[in-house]
Amino acid sequence: MNGYTEEFIFYGDDIRIERFPADTRIFYANPPLDPLPDPAQAISRALDNPLDALPLEKQLNQGSRVTIAFDDPCLPIPLMLRDIRSAVIQEVIGRLYRIGIPKERIRLICANGLHRKWTLDELSLVLGRKVIREMGPERIACHDGSKEEELVHLGTTEDGGEVEINRAVAESDITIYVNVNFTSMNGGWKSILVGLGSWRSIRHHHTPEQWNARESIMNPEKSPMHAALRDMGRLVKKKFNIFQIETVLNNKVWPWPVDRILAPVNSPHRRSGPGAPIRAALSLASLSPARIKRYVRNSLVRSDYRLCGIWAGDVEKVHDRTLEMLQRQQNVEIEDQVDVLVFGVPNLSPYSSQSIFNPILLRSLAMGYLIGLFRNRPVVRQGGIVVAYNPGIEKFHPGHHPSYVDFWKYDLEEHFDPDVCWNELSEKYAANPRYLRLYRDAYAYHGTHVLMNWMWSGRCMQHVGEVILAGAREPKTAGRIGFTPAPDFATALSMAREKAGSGSSIGYQFIPPLFCLDVR
Predict the structure, then answer these.
(1) What is the C-alpha separation between 181 and 183, in angstroms, rounded?
(2) Rounded distance, CA 399 to CA 402, Å?
(3) φ/ψ bin of 14: left (φ > 0), alpha (ψ from -120 to 50), beta (otherwise)
């Protein structure tokens, strides 16, 4: 090949093979960490030897009341073939029974924060059918961050952050939180304070000042959001007994044999490039109707992430171990920033799980999550260009995302600026009776959720000079979210290089799996 190199790249629900200029710097994730050979044994060992805490058997008795909280099905992306949280929760419940605690004194709460609530069928994706059958619908609930009677107010931090969490924590002798970590933005105090937090509390750490392109939320050491959460966590720790169980997953996204087929073209482990059969299969798949692709994405696409670490006990001590392992798995050092950064953007936002990927989620995925995948400095320089590869279709799930629909139709144009959007609309959307009713009773995201995504992505867009949407099928939709449409990938790269200047550097971050770049 003269003058270019080929590589796989996501385009919405499709996977394509595109040509990149020969001088493109392609960034690849680290190889998957070795999985633990016996997950059941590892779970038992962690529970037998908690960090800075007594084992459950020495903390509890048959009269104890226990809350088990767990992440919602937004994570990981994609969801797992065999979710490790199910195995952990099964082991925890078994131990509680052996202590003598009856089922009636145990409750499970999905820590969905201001995300939508989930049906039992959807929760089985995390809990597994065995836990659902054992505990039944009367012992399993989703968190509600809006009902005063289901919340407890703990006070305020020195910076004025109100701390309010699910009342079940106050009514239990212990709250056991079970999570998964495959990026460093999650876990620690974020689990409790966001997953079981209220709007009144969450609004203090999901702000324009704390969500920007300078300090990535993937870097807990520098992120203002994580600093605020640590301050709030001190109040929780003073009052309540929190027993954290954190599991760390490796980054083995695709199960066999898909992992062989979609291995990077330039991987040293690949014997040959993608031949005609693979190219033909990808082209044929791209012709499928959108509804079929959405069904495949929501119901059939599952990851092969494996457990590579698990710790239990004190929140901070446990999370320190988690971050040590994630540092080895997800962070890749690179020499310098680039002028043009390219992302393949799959229709896989945490907030489109079991739902529809909409244009606001496209903007937040590309210009919130993906551009934030760095540890030290942003990968793209100040004023640089981002090329995001996605068709950018205007389609919404009216049941899951009602405030998204309204913002798109009525408020976007006058509130395009992220600070104006947040300052003028957040309390209004939070108090909207229709949004509250749908959040509480009808599986809708909280009214403010759309504003958080708009504000966060808008703040990050201030860092770059332009975002070009490659392969934009609806130029008007691209323009509404602040992206410049380009008809195809080659045109987008040409536009980006022209805008960035002669001799400009291009980088392509090969995703998935998700990983962070550490610019020296």
Answers:
(1) 6
(2) 6
(3) beta
Angstrom distances, CA of residue 442 to CA of 119, 144, 170, 429, 439: 10, 12, 27, 17, 6
- Give the strand pairing for 162-166 and 151-156: antiparallel
User: What are φ and ψ of residue 487, in 5° steps?
Assistant: -70, -30
Amino acid at 20: F
Please give the Cα distance from 362 to 354 (Å, whole number): 16
Q: Quick one: tokens of 499?
A: 């805008």
> β-strand 242-249 against 106-111: which pairing, if any?
unpaired
**Phi and psi, residue 481, nearest 5°:** -95, 10
Q: Residue 91 to residues 45, 47, 53, 95, 171: CA-CA distances in angstroms? A: 11, 9, 18, 6, 23
Cα–Cα distance for residue pair 408/395, rounded to 1 Å: 11
**Using CA atoms, how far apart are residues 341 and 511, in angstroms rounded to an integer?**
13
In the chain the domains, ranked by start, together with CATH numbers, are 4-30+335-519 (3.90.226.30), 39-249 (3.40.50.11440)
Cβ-proximal residues to 468 (8 Å cutoff; 6+ apart), any chain? 385, 386, 387, 388, 483, 484, 485, 486, 492, 495, 496
Q: What is the β-pairing status of strands 151-156 and 140-142? A: unpaired
Distance CA 443, CA 345 (A): 26
- The distance between the two most distant Cα atoms of the chain, rounded to a whole number of Å, is 73
* Sequential DSSP letters for 330-370: HEEEESS-EEEEEEEEES--GGGTTS---HHHHHHIIIIII
Confidence of residue 215 (pLDDT cuts 50, 70, 90): confident
Three-class SS state of 195: helix
Closest of 333, 345, 266 to residue 4, by C-alpha: 266
Cβ(309)–Cβ(248) under 8 Å? yes
From the DSSP assignment, how many helices (H) and strands (E) are in the chain?
19, 18
**Four-point Cα dihedral 368, 369, 372, 374, nearest 10:** -170
Q: How far apart are CA 389 and CA 343, in angstroms?
A: 6
Q: How far apart are the C-alpha atoms of 472 and 361, rounded to whole Å?
A: 15
Tell me the pairing of strands 242-249 and 174-181: parallel
Per-residue pLDDT tens over the stretch 455-497 = 999 999 999 999 999 999 999 999 999 999 999 999 999 999 9
In the predicted structure, residue 344 carries a pLDDT above the cut 80: yes
Query: pLDDT by residue (tens digit) across 218-273?
Result: 999 999 999 999 999 999 999 999 999 999 999 999 999 899 889 999 776 676 77
Count of other CB atoms within 10 angstroms of residue 349? 22
3-state secondary structure of 156: strand
